[in-house]
Design goal:
Blueprint: H1 2-15, H2 31-35, E1 38-39, E2 47-48, E3 56-60, H3 61-66, H4 72-76, E4 82-85, E5 94-97, E6 100-101, E7 107-110, E8 113-114, E9 134-141, H5 145-148, E10 155-161, E11 171-178, E12 182-189, E13 200-210, E14 240-250, E15 254-266, E16 283-299, E17 303-316, E18 322-325, E19 335-338, E20 343-357, E21 362-376, E22 384-385, E23 397-413, E24 416-427, E25 431-445, E26 448-459, H6 463-467, E27 470-471, E28 475-478, H7 480-483, E29 490-503, E30 507-528, E31 537-561, E32 564-579, E33 582-585, E34 592-602, E35 605-614, E36 617-618, E37 632-633, E38 636-648, E39 652-659, E40 667-668, E41 679-680, E42 685-693
Parallel strand pairs: 7-10, 28-31
Antiparallel strand pairs: 1-2, 3-9, 4-5, 5-6, 7-8, 9-10, 11-12, 11-42, 12-13, 13-14, 14-15, 15-16, 16-17, 17-20, 18-19, 19-22, 20-21, 21-23, 23-24, 24-25, 25-26, 26-29, 27-28, 29-30, 30-31, 31-32, 32-33, 32-34, 34-35, 35-38, 36-37, 38-39, 39-42, 40-41
């Protein structure tokens, strides 16, 4: 890593002779401009972020560059109210958003098209969701099933890609190398195609590889890998081989896009090394392919009518498997393979109308969607011989979904707007779900905006949850078909109060307080104790409990000078889980989090230091897993530094990114259904990158 820092230092020195002021630097934006950034995700129409009826964070293209955000997980780890475990096995990243845990409880879109698996199973993140293709990323907190349907549960994230006409005739190449033999290669191109008239193109590709984390010597329980017998290598091997591809062609009315994300990371990282084999044979490889088109039948200043068609394929590669020992004696125990995700294909058609009413004072949003899904569920066994590929499942399950939604925005007074909307989703598997939302936005003064927000959401019952069945040395998980238990969708209702306050001409304060009520939450529950003739207890998934979380976030943004921008945030979150005879703290959260960052520009070099402090982290306790003791993990302090130099030798930009610069040892909580092992964070990690535009 010392060599990486030395090379970066040379690049920064060389860049000093090639200064050319960049007019797009974030520090050149006024506070007014930052508050008036336009967003489209909150209400499915364009509006300013300050007036949008939701707590919304916008990460601009310039911020992505200055902070060297490469993946969606990089952004989430910097946002208020979010706890996140990085390098989280088959999940990639495992976030807990305002106390709501799970990779299947938030929605991610690219240009408004959902990239979550069609059957509501969990979304693999890691390095497979790049943000380097983004013009901006909009993160909308709170449930929004009233406009987006299933899985718009805790947050809706929309990665809005760069316009195909942004830099016509140019191309950018990027290469980065860093700790853990990490490489990251990117290509962005805006090719000219004059023979197609006004049709413009944008192409993006990102390939990320790494040997993955190595916790041997950091925590003693991981030293067990050094005693692995043949055919395993006696070392921790959980590499990362992810990539993204995005192609877009568009003119004023028509756009056609292709998106591919491949997630290929170690499958066993988030589990205990006593019950999971940390070999490169234990991997999780999924591929999502999407093709969509949008056409505007009507496109004027006052109204828009758009038709969208989306084809999606989600595939779990047959080589994917979670390797586990048959007993707790890992080095000598026979090994078994297992899977717990499905393969799905879907076709979706969407119609969306937005229009101005009452001479532009009000607005109306109407829409309808229909979707057909075909899925092959995972095999219902976890006891195949070591190294066996996924045998697949010849069974095909067809699902149909349809919905209608409407929202009206009424400007009751010059400074008071009400928003009222609802959506009805119908599923042939479990019936109809209604989700309303109601909001009020009050402009108390030129510098103060108040918002009162009510939203609701749901998660459709994932096929993976229904069909999950496996055997371990400790328990047997039975599918819904075996237990005969009917599952209901998980539901959420949220009430939120927001204050946006300008402080003078240079600072802005965002404050929001929220209360979430979750019902019919899924849990692996013990149904039958281990008895004579039965080697392990029988578990099944049920709608086991309700959950309440509450908290508040404070964020202060300051444009202190032309070259000096600061962001500071504090978050508090707490909550409890209620079930029969039990009430326990919500797991996987630090009650208090404090975060601060600065962006300072000196000539053509920008410096972005940031610090983050977390209080102790609650662990799940025996409610989720009998082997996982209740309690907490000590809090920790992290410091990072990103330095970016523009026009080094007049040819390329250079970036140096050092995470955990102090080398702090820390741990985070595993997922609540994990095997009872708190999870180490990465040590010091450095990455140097170069980027050239042609």
């Amino acid at each position: 890593m010392k060599k990486i820092i030395q090379i970066a230092s040379m690049a920064l020195v060389l860049s000093g002779s090639a200064y050319a002021e960049d007019p797009t630097n974030l520090s050149d934006l006024s506070l007014e401009s930052l508050m008036d950034l336009k967003v489209t995700t909150v209400s499915r129409r364009e509006e300013s972020v300050s007036q949008a009826p939701a707590t919304t964070y916008v990460i601009t293209e310039q911020q992505i560059k200055d902070r060297d955000y490469r993946s969606l997980g990089d952004i989430l780890s910097d946002l208020p109210g979010i706890d996140i475990t990085r390098n989280a096995g088959r999940f990639g990243d495992y976030p807990t958003i305002r106390g709501i845990t799970g990779n299947d409880l938030f929605m991610v879109m690219v240009d408004g098209h959902k990239i979550n698996p069609p059957t509501s199973s969990y979304l693999n993140l890691g390095k497979s969701v790049s943000v380097l293709l983004a013009k901006q990323v909009e993160v909308v907190y709170g449930p929004n099933s009233a406009l987006y349907g299933a899985d718009a549960f805790s947050v809706v994230i929309n990665i809005i890609t760069k316009s195909a006409s942004a830099e016509s005739g140019t191309a950018t190449l990027g290469a980065a190398y860093g700790s853990l033999d990490t490489t990251d290669f990117t290509l962005q191109a805006f090719p000219k195609a004059e023979f197609l008239g006004d049709f413009k193109f944008y192409a993006f590709g990102d390939i990320y590889n790494s040997s993955g984390p190595n916790f041997v010597g950091m925590k003693s329980t991981y030293d067990i890998v050094t005693r692995y017998p043949d055919p395993l290598t006696p070392a921790m091997q959980q590499p990362v081989h992810d990539y993204n591809v995005f192609l877009k062609g568009e003119n004023d009315r028509l756009s056609i896009s292709y998106y591919r994300k491949q997630f290929n990371e170690g499958a066993s990282l988030l589990g205990s090394p006593k019950g999971n084999i940390l070999s490169d044979r234990s991997k999780w490889l999924t591929t999502t392919d999407m093709l969509w088109t949008n056409y505007d039948f009507i496109k004027t200043d006052k109204e828009k009518l758009n038709l969208g068609i989306t084809l999606t394929s989600f595939v779990l590669d047959p080589s994917s498997q979670i390797l586990k020992p048959t007993t707790s004696n890992v080095p000598t125990s026979p090994l078994i393979s297992g899977w717990n995700m499905e393969t799905s294909q879907s076709v979706r058609a969407s119609l969306l109308y937005t229009g101005a009413m009452r001479d532009g004072a009000d607005s109306l949003t109407l829409g309808a969607d229909g979707e057909f899904i075909q899925s092959s569920p995972p095999p219902t066994t976890f006891d195949l011989p070591f190294g066996t590929n996924n045998p697949g499942n010849s069974e095909v399950i067809a699902q149909r979904r349809a919905d209608v939604f409407a929202e009206y925005s009424l400007k009751a007074l010059d400074n008071l707007t009400f928003n009222l909307g609802a959506r009805v989703d119908t599923f042939d598997r479990f019936g109809t779900v209604l989700n309303p939302r109601a909001n009020a936005v009050f402009q108390a003064s030129d510098s103060t905006t108040l918002k009162v927000l009510y939203g609701s959401g749901f998660q459709a019952v994932p096929l993976q949850v229904e069909r999950e069945a496996f055997v371990t040395p400790f328990f047997v998980q039975m599918s819904v078909a075996e237990t005969g238990i009917k599952l209901n969708p998980q539901r959420i209702k949220t009430l939120e109060f927001v204050v946006n306050q300008k402080i003078g001409s240079k600072m802005r304060l965002n404050a929001d307080a929220y209360y979430n009520n979750l019902t019919d939450v899924f849990k692996h529950a013990k149904l039958v104790d281990a008895v004579a003739g039965v080697s392990a207890a029988r578990f099944g998934t049920i709608n086991a409990f309700s959950q309440n979380t509450y908290g508040f976030d404070l964020q202060l943004s300051a444009v202190l000078s032309k070259d000096f921008v600061g962001d500071f945030a504090y978050s508090f979150v707490d909550g409890f889980i209620d079930t029969v005879g039990q009430s326990i703290p919500v797991p996987n959260i630090a009650n208090n989090k404090l975060w601060g960052s600065l962006t300072y520009t000196l000539g053509n070099v920008s410096f972005h230091p940031k610090v983050k402090w977390l209080s102790q982290i609650n662990t799940a306790g025996g409610f989720f897993n009998a082997s996982y003791s209740a309690g907490s993990i000590p809090g920790f302090f992290l410091a990072d530094l990103t330095v970016r130099a523009k026009q080094v030798l007049g040819i390329f930009d250079a970036v140096l990114d050092v995470s955990n610069i102090l080398g702090t040892y820390y741990e985070t909580a595993t997922y609540p259904w994990g095997s009872g092992e708190n999870y180490p964070g990465l040590g010091r990690f450095a990455l140097i990158g170069l980027e050239a535009k042609f």
